[in-house]
Amino acid sequence: MRGPPGRLWRRDDLEQLAAHLRGGPQPLGTRGDLIELHKRITGMFATLNDGLGEMYTQKAEADRKALSARMDALEGRGEPDGRRAAHRTGAVLRDSFAKVLAKDTAARRRSRGSG
Q: Does the reported pTM lie above 0.70?
């Protein structure tokens, strides 16, 4: 039943299927009916796709708001300690940078004096 690559059905398979659907004592539908059914199915999938995209967008927005609220609550709860920690961290960083700069300056002076 497989046709050339990229095609699921061979032409004669499709013709046989169409004849079966449209012919016989109780045909399932005419060509126009099948075309209309195809259009309706295609429209339903397009609507479904749009609806799913909108649903995921709304969920992502709700998740962002919940996460933001949670972060705000955590920051608000720990604010006094957070300020102390930031102050201590700032002092440690300032001292570390001062030491690095002092070493670098001393190394540059030595290299200029010996060069």
A: no
